[in-house]
Amino acid sequence: MAGEDKLRPLRERIDAIDAEILALIAERARIAQEVGRVKQEAGERDNFYRPEREAQILRRVRDANPGPLDDETVVRIFREIMSACLALEKPLQVAFLGPEGTFTQQAAYKHFGQSVQVHPFPAIDEIFRAVASGACHFGVVPVENSSEGVVTHTLDSFLGTSLLISGEVVLRIHHALLSRCRSLDEVQEVLAHSQALAQCREWLDRFLPNVKRTPVSSNAEAARLAAIVPGSAAIAGEVAARLYELNVLERNIEDDPDNTTRFLVVGRQAVGPTGDDKTSLLVSTGNRPGALYQILQPFAVHGISMTKIESRPSRRGMWDYVFFIDIEGHRDDPEVARALRDLEQKAQMVKWLGSYPKAVI
Amino acid sequence: MAGEDKLRPLRERIDAIDAEILALIAERARIAQEVGRVKQEAGERDNFYRPEREAQILRRVRDANPGPLDDETVVRIFREIMSACLALEKPLQVAFLGPEGTFTQQAAYKHFGQSVQVHPFPAIDEIFRAVASGACHFGVVPVENSSEGVVTHTLDSFLGTSLLISGEVVLRIHHALLSRCRSLDEVQEVLAHSQALAQCREWLDRFLPNVKRTPVSSNAEAARLAAIVPGSAAIAGEVAARLYELNVLERNIEDDPDNTTRFLVVGRQAVGPTGDDKTSLLVSTGNRPGALYQILQPFAVHGISMTKIESRPSRRGMWDYVFFIDIEGHRDDPEVARALRDLEQKAQMVKWLGSYPKAVI
């Protein structure tokens, strides 16, 4: 081993660094325990986890990251350190949309680190119930889901809950074309959730222009069917190819290479401002002409960016609409507060769903 | 918030510590890059990941851990730091027995950290092929598996491979009794992999003494059947309850509360000694009386502890047996080397499967 002489001093330096990191992590954990004691004495036992403080720490780490590790990696390492320190007080119980191995579980770990206890639930409603009842501290649910089609369930669950949004998680999602066929020529039908079909439309138009597209309940179901229906192909994550013994005919067929899925973290408490927040609202209007235009006006007037709007029929009566709106900023920010006051004058109902830190990475 | 005055100095101290940790992790990453350059100059490009060095670092961290975080947590954090530093050079490609969400994937992440690319394969043989061909750097396979019943496939795969064992991973496994039934009284049949039935025998004898026990191909299959066969219950991980909408009739029914599953990491290169190693051997004997006794003698004579022995019929002919043996120590340890020399005199064939660091946690 020619390089051993050169390697020894480098390894000794690494060992010394590791000893320092270990001592610092231990000290950090002891201080975190002290923070827990102070909060308990102040009667803030339920407040042991503060999403706004966590987001600020992670942003500081991200912004101060000198390299060579990328921001995502250093944020993940610090997430683990914080997750471990927090678990000393009480491990967070986190409900997620199961089964195990789903993107939602991945999102839960990305947001909370590995030192939490995650619990799979089969339906969005059950996650809301588990959090509302106090059985879990937080729940993680998909909200703009490119592949599982549960967006509307999540939004509908907000109609009848007192839970608040305390965070968001963004995951990058790739689609592949999977089939028992050996080549694209043999494919006569493409199966996928309608959202996945939409996300890959340009690719399908170009490479499979005359092939039937059939929406099914989920991409997992599409993959299952592709394994038994001759001549069919599924749009799904590459993982499904192994599961159902399908060939990967093409990778990354999504039209937008930055295709992401967004998840919301729901909890029982409001989160303080961090300087880089989002606010989610549920707004209902009557079926008057110009109703939507009217409710958007306060945001325009006060210079508030809207990042998302989604309309849903309300459950209360025909002709009543409900809008889910995401805006930039925190309810405690002066401009946002003014816009919300104006909005309350114009809408039938405004329900504040939470102000929370934007996803750090 | 009564405690804010007391919290502020604690939080400032945490922020200062985080800045120090970040700087140290960045420095560690730069030195790791330097290590990579030195190795490359010395023509050791394939040797960029050294399991023995990693095990030594993790043991040092574990042994120096001053608390309050437990050893498992600090080892996991350092695993992530090392995993991230290593990925700067080249992310490790790791094959595991799929599908996603299995214990084997959990084992792969536990051993290599999150900064690796994991690839699910549907069969043990394919994992061996993926590693032998160089498509993946390492493979993770269950070897003493309490729930999936693939032990023999793994051992058989070693008969015909030149791959070497480069590590082991130990996971704790819990079993639950799952059923569509509402109570134990209604259960008429218990389904599970035969190993799971064996691991829960005392509990079954006590609480379901007159109920039929039916071995099936896996605990996952048992859970699937329990959802459709009236009056049946499955022994499986609690996770399966959500997946198949079963009731959890009882938790932790395994007789040994330290029930663990062991996984092996296979690679293409030998691993150096760390001072706390295991060696795995494949030994064949003729069908002579006392053959087994003879091959065990060298270990007794040289004071080597045997941690495991498993007999398998060889594929070469009737009446030929093959023994898989794990001993404590590394092939380069003098006592082990002497025992192996003696063993070679007594056995028909001795195949060294690898010497590797014992699992750190």
UniProtKB/TrEMBL annotation, chains A, B:
> Out of the domains of life, which is the source?
Bacteria
Q: Which InterPro entries match?
A: ACT-like_dom_sf, ACT_dom, Chor_mutase/pphenate_deHydtase, Chorismate_II_sf, CM_dom_sf, CM_II_prokaryot, G/b/e-P-prot_chorismate_mutase, Preph_deHydtase
Site features described as Essential for prephenate dehydratase activity, chain residue numbers: T261
- Catalysed reaction equations from the record: chorismate = prephenate; prephenate + H(+) = 3-phenylpyruvate + CO2 + H2O
- Please give the GO cellular component terms listed in this UniProt entry: cytoplasm
The answer to whether keyword Lyase applies is yes
Tell me the GO molecular function terms. chorismate mutase activity; prephenate dehydratase activity
Task: Kindly give the SMART domains that the UniProt entry links to this protein.
Answer: CM_2
What are the UniProt keywords, alphabetically? Amino-acid biosynthesis, Aromatic amino acid biosynthesis, Cytoplasm, Isomerase, Lyase, Multifunctional enzyme, Phenylalanine biosynthesis
* Keyword Transcription regulation applies: no
Q: Which GO terms describe its biological process?
A: chorismate metabolic process; L-phenylalanine biosynthetic process
Query: Matching Pfam families, A to Z?
Result: ACT, CM_2, PDT
Q: Where is the Chorismate mutase domain?
A: 1-93
Q: What is its EC number?
A: 4.2.1.51, 5.4.99.5
Instruction: Give residue ranges for domain ACT.
Output: 280-357
User: The Prephenate dehydratase domain covers which part of the protein?
Assistant: 93-268
Its localization reads: Cytoplasm
Pathway, according to UniProt?
Metabolic intermediate biosynthesis; prephenate biosynthesis; prephenate from chorismate: step 1/1; Amino-acid biosynthesis; L-phenylalanine biosynthesis; phenylpyruvate from prephenate: step 1/1
Task of the protein: Catalyzes the Claisen rearrangement of chorismate to prephenate and the decarboxylation/dehydration of prephenate to phenylpyruvate.
For this entry, the protein name equals: Bifunctional chorismate mutase/prephenate dehydratase
| Organism (species) | Methylomarinovum tepidoasis
Q: What is the lineage of its organism?
A: Bacteria, Pseudomonadati, Pseudomonadota, Gammaproteobacteria, Methylococcales
